[in-house]
Structures are given as C-alpha cells and as structure tokens.
Amino acid sequence: MTDWLHHRKVLAALGTTGNGGDAVTSPDLSEKIALQYAVEQFLYREAALLDDRRFDDWLALIADDIHYWMPIRRTVTVENLHLEYAKADGMAYFDDDKSDLKMRVDRLRLNSAWSENPPSRTRHFVSNVRILEVKGPEIALEAAIHLYRSRLNDKIDHWIGKRRDRLRRVGDGFQIVERHIFLDQTVLLSTNFSSLF
C-alpha cells in the first residue's frame, strides 16, 4: 500500500477524506500531522548530529536562552512520589545554560576531556514523541529516550528516561529552548557522565 493511499485510509477512518470531510477538518488534521512530522524529523536529526560528533552543528540548534536540566531522582514510597525528582532549586546532574553547553562541547570537540579520549560511541534513540502544547512559536513536547554509550573496548552504559523539550520555530526550523531530562535510574553506575542528552 502506498503512503498516499494509507494516509487517505487513515483520514477516512477519522471521518474525513482529506479534501473537506466533516468530522475532522482536513486542514486542522493535516497541520497536526505536518507539525508532528517536522518535530520528529528535527529530533532525529539532532540525535544523529550528536552520534556523529557534529557538536558545533548541534550547538546551532540550541537557543541562546536554553535551560538544560537533569534533576536527581530518588527512590521514594508511594505517598512521597511527588518528591521523586528534585525540584528546580534542588540538586541536579545538569543545570546548564548555553555557555555551559559550549564549554562541554569544547571539551568533547577538542579532546581535552581525558575521559573522552578515545571518544565514546553513542546512539541516541528518541520515540513516543507527543506534542503537549503549541503556544505561538513554541512547541512543548515529551519523548522517551534511550542513550547507549560504548567506551574503550568493554565499557557500556545505558540511560533511559524521558525528555520534556520546548522548541521555538526559527525560520524554517526549530531551536531548543528548554530540555528537561528525567532518567528512570536513581543510581548512575557510569564512570563518567560526559554525554549530551
């Protein structure tokens, strides 16, 4: 089945033919599909830039007013789940602005970080992308992440969790204004934590 035919069947199942149906207006649905596609392609491209160590190109996707944050996570009882992640003013693995990210990139790019020479091999997986809100030029989204890292000959790390990103439309593309990373692990067993999420 061609993509076009499949798309038409999906639209029909939703109550529209894609050319002026009644139940769901086709322009609205088409815009949502186009936005979802554009956001996902942006996130996949960003992941590829990190995996290919194209850090300067990655930095170009980062807004000047970025907030890049990864709070610590604790193991808590059910009645204390609201305390599971540190709050904005609490402890965090990362609480970075753009200048902090530039310094981290410089260390990776210039091989001045001994823990990254030889460099790690990474693979960033991004899935379950959900657009939560569109407000003016900004898009809030949530996605599942899995970062695989192989170091030296036998060191392997997996970090799994979710990201809450806020993107801003800039020209024909996006920039990342906010990235909040919530890992599933409470104890990180890695020997270093130099990878970018």
Strand order of the largest sheet: 2-1-6-5-4-3
The total count of strands amounts to: 6
The major sheet is characterized as:
6 strands, mixed
In the CATH scheme, what's the topology name of the domain at 54-183? Nuclear Transport Factor 2, Chain: A
Mean pLDDT equals 87
Output the structural class. alpha+beta
Question: What shape does the CA trace take?
Answer: globular
- Put simply, the count of helices is 4
- CATH architecture descriptor name of the domain at 54-183: Roll
Highest-level CATH class of the domain at 54-183: Alpha Beta
- How helix-rich are the residues, as a percent range? 25-40%
pLDDT under 50 segments (min length 5)?
Answer: 20-24
Please indicate the percent range of residues in DSSP E strands (runs of 2 or more): 35-45%
SSE pattern: HHHEEHEEEE
Instruction: Tell me the Rg in angstroms.
Output: 20 Å
Distance between the termini: 36 Å
